[in-house]
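Study this pair:
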Amino acid sequence: MNIQSKKNKLVTFISFLTIAMAFALLVIVFYWVLKPYKLLVINERPLPVMNKVVKRGDTVNYVLDYCKYTDKQAVVSKKFSDGIEFALPDYRSNNPEGCRTQIVATEVPHTLPEGKYILIADYTYQVNPIRWIVVRIHTQVFEVIE
């Protein structure tokens, strides 16, 4: 066997290996993008508010009845909305897997104008290196007073 033949075999082997690795990577990316994930199921929408009238600086309490099917952390983004959105700082939530009902308290900022609002919460989960899934929930209407 001559040197040219060995070089051709090596180039052919490296070419097939490169194509196989690219195909495998493509399959993984398609799987990550297309796989349906069941992360969080909210059992009652909109979320019931326990105190329909809230003073600025107090807390609005709502009932969150859910089933969580993952052990992943969520980044929670909350905002008050009356047509204009008033965002609160994001935080991380790591509730355990399973079904439960809990009362969630969220402080109403002192700077929030009076009016009727809903509270919107986005739970963002990173399910793989290239995909994030957002579960959006909102409460019933409540009123903020002086």
Remarks:
- The chain has two domains: 1-35, 40-145.
